[in-house]
Structure formats: structure tokens, C-alpha cells
Design brief:
The structure is a single chain. Strands 3-2-1-6-4-7-5 form a 7-stranded parallel sheet. It has 10 helices and 7 strands. It is an alpha/beta fold and 250 residues long. It has 2 domains: 3-163, 3-Layer(aba) Sandwich (Alpha/beta knot), CATH 3.40.1280; 182-247, Helicase, Ruva Protein, domain 3, CATH 1.10.8.590.
Length: 250
């Protein structure tokens, strides 16, 4: 495993064909990546995965199988979701060529996830909204769909190429805190949704795109641990004030 990529995990969501899992493992090892996570694979373990992995059985042996996307990304600070489709609510977008420099600029102390969706339908809108940025591989507009193992190969290639470039000079303005994890931002958004509902800003029967846009805001800004704690503290004080109002003299 290439040292600068050891915190990057490749996450395959509900892969139906085990051969694609093996092909992804081989693509990863060729490009120096070793963290493979599988979310509800259709068939795994399976001999076809081992056959397609060829000399990358060690990647398969270390693969982590989980029952939910949350389990695969909750401790990550950056989540990149692959997609070939445009979305109703635009999201920050990278090309495959841009993923290497983006990940290179991240801290290596917390994991980063790159998500690949189902063979037939890719990632759902809800899954893509869990991502900080979306990634597209430029391809023939008449037929832009790549086999999932091939998509993993392209992305891993670009990641590996970025490790061959000279190291950038460290910035004097490096951030003083780690970006918050997915789980921490999810907790903040859930807390915020509860408060917005309580003050009648958000109609739970017809929320529209409010929470989706707020999720985009926070995933784009990437607050750090301290900032999330400050916002959660402010929301808690608002709730206490509302409680005092509710229980005060009538």
C-alpha cells in the first residue's frame, strides 16, 4: 500500500457481481491502495471474486463487509461519490483527474472514502447527498457508463499518479482542527432539523429541499470538530429557551 494513500478507502455499495469486487481489488493493489469496504454485497465471499482478484487476494482478505453506508463512512472526514448523472440540486464536482490533488491536500490522520454504486443504477440521490463532492469520469457522451471495476481502476490510477508528483510546500495557514467526521455532521444536521421543526421554520409534512440544501452547505464548508460543537451548543441553548417559554406562566 502506498503510504500517502493508506487512509483512502474504496467503498463498493451493493455490488451484485462478485467478479467486480475481485476486479476492484486487483485495480486497487496495482495502484497502491489496500482499503476495500463492501456495503451489502450481493455475493461475497465468492470464488469469482478470488479468480478476478488474481494476485490481490490480500486486499480481499482485508476487505471490510458492512450492512450500511453509515458504517462505511461515519468516521470519514471527506466522502467522494462517483456519479454519471446531473442532479436536481447541484453538488461540488470533481473529475477523475482532479481527485488526486484534492485528496493529497487532506490530512492523513482520518479516513477518506470514495464511493462506487450499483452496477445497474449507481448511487442513489440520498447516498450522493451524504458526500462532500461528486466525481465524474469524462467519457463518450453517447455511452458514458463504465463497469464498476473499470471505474475503480481509473480513479485509483489518478490517485496513484498524484503520489508521483513532488510534495507541495506545506502551507503556513494550515487549519488548526481536523474536519468533523460524517457522523458529527449528521448529528448536527439532525439536531438542526429538530430545532427548525420546533420553531415552525420547517414543516415536517412538506420539508421540500431545505434539509438537502443545508446538508450541501455543511458538506461544502466542512466544519471542524470545534465548530460543530459550538453550533450544537447554540442549538441546545435555543432548545432550553424554548423549554422555559413552554413551561412559563400562561
Amino acid at each position: 500500500m502506498t503510504a500517502s494513500l493508506e487512509h483512502v478507502r474504496i467503498v463498493l455499495v451493493e455490488t451484485s457481481h462478485p467478479g467486480n469486487i475481485g476486479g476492484a481489488a486487483r485495480a486497487m493493489k496495482t495502484m497502491g491502495l489496500g482499503q476495500l469496504w463492501l456495503v451489502r454485497p450481493g455475493r461475497y465471499p465468492d470464488p469469482q471474486a478470488e479468480w478476478r482478484a488474481a494476485g490481490a487476494l490480500d486486499v480481499l482478505d482485508r476487505a471490510v463487509v458492512v450492512d450500511s453506508l453509515d458504517a462505511a463512512i461515519s468516521d470519514c472526514t471527506l466522502v467522494i461519490g462517483t456519479s454519471t448523472r446531473s442532479r436536481r440540486i447541484p453538488w461540488p464536482l470533481l473529475t477523475a483527474k482532479e481527485i488526486g490533488p484534492r485528496i493529497r491536500g487532506e490530512s492523513t490522520r482520518r479516513p477518506i472514502a470514495v464511493l462506487f454504486g450499483r452496477e445497474t443504477s449507481g448511487l442513489t440521490n440520498d447516498e450522493l447527498q451524504r458526500c462532500n463532492v461528486h466525481l465524474q469520469i469524462p467519457a463518450n457522451p453517447a455511452y458514458p457508463s463504465l463497469n464498476v471495476a473499470m471505474a475503480v481502476q481509473v480513479v485509483c490510477y489518478e490517485l496513484y499518479q498524484s503520489t508521483l508528483q513532488p510534495e507541495d510546500t506545506p502551507s503556513a495557514a494550515a487549519w488548526d482542527r481536523e474536519p468533523a467526521t460524517v457522523a458529527a455532521v449528521d448529528g448536527l444536521l439532525e439536531h438542526l432539523q429538530g430545532v427548525l421543526t420546533r420553531v415552525d421554520f420547517l414543516d415536517p409534512t412538506n420539508p421540500g429541499q431545505v434539509m438537502a440544501r443545508l446538508r450541501r452547505l455543511f458538506t461544502r464548508l466542512r466544519p471542524d470538530d470545534t465548530e460543530v460543537a459550538i453550533l450544537r451548543g447554540a442549538l441546545t441553548e435555543i432548545e432550553r429557551s424554548l423549554n422555559r417559554t413552554d413551561t412559563g406562566p400562561k
